[in-house]
Design a protein that fits this description.
Layout lengths: L12 H12 L3 E3 L6 E3 L6 H16 L3 E4 L5 E5 L9 E5 L13 H17 L7 E5 L13 H7 L4 H6 L8 H8 L14 E7 L4 H5 L3 E7 L1 E10 L3 E2 L11 H18 L6 E3 L3 E4 L5 E2 L2 E10 L2 H20 L5 E10 L2 E2 L2 H13 L4 E6 L4 H5 L5 E6 L16 H19 L3
Parallel strand pairs: 5-6, 5-7, 7-18, 8-17
Antiparallel strand pairs: 1-2, 3-4, 4-6, 8-16, 8-18, 9-14, 9-15, 10-13, 11-14, 12-14
Helix pairs in contact: 1-3, 1-12, 3-12, 8-9, 10-12
The protein binds zinc ion.
Length: 424
């Protein structure tokens, strides 16, 4: 007996691409810096609401039963032959940053719908139900907490906390859910699915660098954000002798350099450190800075090493403060998430699906946060990454993955979902 051909399914690449391009029209704007069309669809704005209604229309056209929960998370369900079995969940988000492209999040949502369309056309039934989820405010840009909808669905954050969050204009998330009509009736706590698989653009250069089509994501690294404010003393640049200065700008620079030396030391494993925001006051040519504000973004796949890096930074800040009378520092924690390892069994199904589609793959850790890291608290979870052009630039109108790259990812998603939905 010869080996039977492994059962794979391939989606309609053109139809998938068309839905990505159609959704990108909603919230589209002309980006002056790049000269490109970008997407601005912040969570629960009018544009996001139009996008959500479009996605619901597509779900219903694909025969999915749609429900909306009290966080505005949307789920479309395709029934299985055993409706009592826990569903296999896929999905992502369609909210965006203010200067986005067409792919971040949208690929996972529209890809999930495309998988359902393909199963329908082929007349394929599955034992377990398949659900496609759309999570609210993944980006965290408008209400300040990222992965918000999935975090509430998974029980890490409460509905009350989420509803009370406000945007810059003082509007609450709860109010905006009601205003846009997405304050759904369904309870927000998600019953544990059988598994969760999310396909997403990589948003980095590793897949392209390795010349592979598919990334099997092993987990999401830990993230630590803090804001540091340094108080020094304003002084005249010409008349104040150097030994009498309390230069907040100099202290900020020392922190930046020290972080880099921590990274280069190798003592903290695969630590990444970024000071992406740094301002001095009063920000004038001939005044010694009185104050400086900077943010520190640390990433580490190892929680213990992350904790050691944070401690080392805190010790350096104290040292810096003590080194110069008149200098004082305050820190404010902005965000902190632990390393989330993904399920090895689901990773294996993804890797096998990629093999069966004849696609090259590597395993890699996600440098960015995703809804999958929240849903991982509920059920076996993993992610599929597809490469992006231009070093995987994202959160930018230049963000681009080719139609082939997108279809490869969703082919692997389709076969993975089919196999997971057939499991006991
Ligand atoms: Zn995303």
């Amino acid at each position: 007996m010869t080996n039977p051909a492994p059962h794979t399914i391939s989606v309609d690449a053109g139809r998938l691409w068309q839905s990505l391009m159609d959704l990108a029209e909603i919230g589209a704007y002309d980006d002056e810096r790049t000269g490109l069309r970008g997407v601005n669809r912040l969570a629960l704005t009018d544009a996001d609401a139009v996008g959500r209604r479009q996605v619901i229309t597509w779900m219903e056209q694909a025969g999915l039963a749609v429900r909306v929960d009290r966080m505005g998370n949307i789920y479309g369900r395709r029934e299985g032959t055993d409706p009592a079995a826990a569903p296999v969940l896929t999905g992502s988000h369609i909210d965006s940053v203010a200067t986005a492209g067409a792919f971040d999040g949208c690929l996972g949502v529209l890809g999930g719908i495309e998988v359902v369309r393909t199963l329908n056309e082929r007349g394929i039934t599955t034992r377990r139900p398949i659900e496609v989820g759309v999570f609210t405010e993944e980006e965290g840009v408008r209400f300040g907490t990222d992965m918000l909808g999935s975090a509430v669905a998974a029980g890490r954050l409460t509905l009350e906390y989420a509803h009370a969050l406000t945007d810059r204009d003082g509007r609450t998330l709860g109010g905006e859910l009601a205003r846009t009509g997405f304050d759904g009736p369904t309870g927000v706590r998600l019953a544990p699915p059988h598994a969760y698989v999310e396909c997403h653009i990589e948003q980095g250069p590793v897949l392209a660098e390795n010349d592979v089509e598919i990334g099997v994501v092993t987990g999401v690294q830990g993230i630590s954000w803090q804001e540091i404010t340094i108080h020094g003393r304003a002084a005249h640049a010409g008349t104040t002798p150097t030994h009498l200065r309390v230069d907040a700008g100099l202290a900020a620079a020392q922190i930046v350099v020290h972080l880099r030396s921590m990274v280069d030391s190798g003592s903290y494993g695969d630590l990444r450190a970024t000071v992406g925001h740094l301002v001095v006051h009063p920000d004038l040519t001939n005044i010694v800075p009185a104050r400086a504000e900077l943010t520190v973004d640390l990433r580490n796949p190892d929680d213990a090493r992350m904790a050691r890096a944070e401690k080392a930074l805190a010790a350096f800040l104290r040292e810096l403060e003590n080194s110069l009378p008149g200098l004082s520092l305050t820190t404010r924690r902005m965000a902190r998430t632990a390393h989330v390892p993904f399920d090895e069994g689901v990773q294996k199904v993804i890797a096998q699906a990629a093999d069966d589609h004849g696609l090259e793959h590597i395993s890699l850790l996600s440098g960015a946060g995703h809804d999958a890291q929240e849903i991982a608290a509920l059920c076996p979870t993993a992610m599929i990454f597809v490469p992006g052009e231009y070093d995987g630039i994202s959160h930018n109108p230049r963000e681009y993955s080719t139609p082939e790259a997108c279809a490869h990812g969703i082919d692997v998603l389709a076969t993975t979902l089919l196999r997971l939905a057939g499991q006991d």
